[in-house]
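Throughout our pipeline, every protein is held as a single compact record rather than as scattered files. Such a record has a labelled line for the sequence and another for the backbone structure tokens. This encoding replaces a full spatial description with a residue-level series of whole-number codes. For reference, a complete record is included directly beneath this paragraph.
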Amino acid sequence: MRGCHGVLREQTLLTKLIWAALLIAAADALWNGQFSLLFIALATLALSMAPVFVARWADVHVPATFMLAVVAFVGGTLFLGEVYGFYDRFWWWDILMHGGSAVGFGLIGFVLVFMLFQGDRFAAPHWVVAVFGFCFAVAIGAAWEVFEFAMDQLFGMNMQKSGLVDTMTDLIVDIIGALFGALSGWLYLKGLYAPGMQRLIDEFIERNPRYFTRLKRPEVHNVGRNDAD
């Protein structure tokens, strides 16, 4: 099993820079007595690094691109969104954060089910695997809304902004993103690979071959491409 230091070294330069920036922000907040900012910086750092330790415990190799997406979401939501007011500056920031994360969690949900079946494409109907990926992503989105509510109630933050409207908008965006992520997994099972998404799934499989011993790759057809071309 790889040590945490080895896992941390495997991360992208951008991921490491985000972690370093959070540490610097936390140190500066402590120096200036800004304890609310210190809490947000440390909470962001802890949440963004949690997948590293969970993956090590589960003995699963999480590709660096997946980790970068998690770090970017947590940092963009908690730090840039709350501390630097990106939600107020850019109307689309909340949509970007929730939509992008939902697509990612939809893919993760699909990969988890696919991993349970050892990569056997015919162990369950393709739509069932896609539905689980969709439900997984929506559940994570709902859990995040509970987290926002808890932060607002316990620490006086304003993560929910307009309350019910903000929560429902976030959940709707989560559902749309989850559908896209789950559809990408369904296309993968059908051998109809969407550009970009295929590479993310393949990267996870390549890094964890022992969990996909029954994988048989079908003939690949790019989505939207005419086979006669």
Observations:
- The chain has nine helices and two strands.
- The chain has two domains: 1-86, 91-229.
- Residues 70 and 126 are 26 Å apart (CA to CA).
